[in-house]
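Lab notes, practical 5.
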Amino acid sequence: MRRLHRYSRTSRVDLAANVTAHLRLDRTDGTPLLNFVVTTGPDAFRVSDRPGDDSLPPPAAPGVRYLHAVGDSYTMGWGVDASSSYPAQLAWLLPPELRVVNLGVDGFGTLAATAKSMALAERYPPAHAVYLFVPNDFSDDEQARAVEQRPAAVHWAHEALDVLRRHSALASTPFALRYRLQFRVGPARGEPRSFSDAAAVPERLLVTAPPQDTWPAPLRTRPSFVRLLEYRGFLEARGATLTVLVLSTHSESLEMLRFCREQGITALLIEAPPEMRLVDEGHFNALGNRALARLVARLVMHPAAAPGTSEVGADARPH
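Output from the prediction step:
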């Protein structure tokens, strides 16, 4: 973790550039709860782990536009290798002139996720952006705002600690203990789930929202909402579209869904059933990522299609 991440003065945490890290977290019986590899490129976002993979063309390649997959660990593909993440799966379903950049970073909220996309818009001109909102994004934004307001001396201290952690296992001991306590998991409560392409049906991600009169009224002064409107305007000025996928039916999610619909932002409520999640962990497994990729491909290629119809379940193109 200390190799993969770096301290950020604006977003609290970000990925380091040009790093490959093997992340493994074992249960108490020695079997892995998580076991995957993350590789980042020169622009500090997740890329393929396979040497020589040229699926992503050079920045600003002529005639190429990009889909920006923005969000946190769910977008990043936490718990699965790069090829099984939803942005990588999505790349196979879109036309060759539309490429996908995986801008997801664990620990990001709305502010950091959209900021990373905007910072890379000149190098990777967006045609579409898909923001995957999760309920803790509001609290992540609050933490990011607090970090941004730290005095310069506090930033220097955190940056020095960050450097020390990279070069000293001893300096990382407190962090290792926290992870051990936070993620301590006994023997698996379920069997590992095998991947079945036929089972990756997008409709299984769609959920029916509770009655709209039970949705929390959006707190319009939330930095997350202010930034989302700014981000939509930023994209529209470049001829790009924004789609928001809202995960779960928690109150924070329903508040985001209501805000998007009131503002005319395309938004869809989703939830992964247990068989589409990592055992004992909660993030999307390969099956869930595949279903999500198919859903996004249909929304991008056929934006007028009503969610839940048979069109949503079809691939955008053969592969």
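Observations recorded by the TA: The mean pLDDT is 88. The chain has one domain: 5-52+65-313.
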